[in-house]
Amino acid sequence: MLIGHLGEDVKMHYFDGGNCIGRFPLATNETYINKSTNEKITSTEWHNLVVRNKAAEICEKYLSKGDKIYVEGRIKSRQWQTEDGVTKYTTEIQVTEFTFLTVKKEIESSGRTVTEGKSYDPNQNPLPENDLPF
Q1: Is the pTM of the predicted complex or chain greater than 0.85?
Q2: Which of 4, 22, 106, 130 is least crowded, fewest Cβ atoms below 10 Å from its Cβ?
Q3: Are 119 and 99 in contact, with CB atoms under 8 Å apart?
């Protein structure tokens, strides 16, 4: 479970057969007081988030850099080879559920702003094509 702000807009990748994934970085902050100096310290951690299919399309449509979101998911590590044979590693959060906490984009069809605190569980039944998840 993470609560944080998007570091970039959602980047989509589409596959043959209609499936897609969206990727975006999420910044989480931890704030504490250094007892020896009584100084407030904020530590930022970056997480690579991955959303799939309908959930990815919803995130791309309504989320943008700076928006605050709550996510639940699983940690997944993977590796791959670059073209020059170098092995690369990454750790990602495979999102299973999310809730928009603050968003800036507007819903084009109605002209109203997406409200805060709306959630979507991509594991539930698929939504009709033009329905919002909230």
Answers
A1: no
A2: 130
A3: yes
Of residues 77 and 103, more confidence is placed in 77
- The span from the CA of 72 to the CA of 21, in Å, is 16
How far is residue 122's CA from residue 97's CA, in Å, rounded to a whole number? 6
Helix (H, G, I), strand (E, B) or coil at 81: strand
The distance between the two most distant Cα atoms of the chain, rounded to a whole number of Å, is: 58
- What is the model's pLDDT at position 62? 93
The residue type found at 43 is S
3 state SS of 3: strand
CB-count exposure of residue 60 (10 Å: 0-12, 13-18, 19+): middle
Give yes or no for residue 54 having a pLDDT over 50. yes
- Nearest to 70, CA basis, from 26, 19, 30: 26
Q: How many CB atoms lie within 10 A of CB 53?
A: 15
Cα(12)–Cα(28) distance, rounded to whole angstroms?
Answer: 22
b/e per residue 108-126 (b: at least 16 CB within 10 A)? eeeeeebeeeeebebeeee
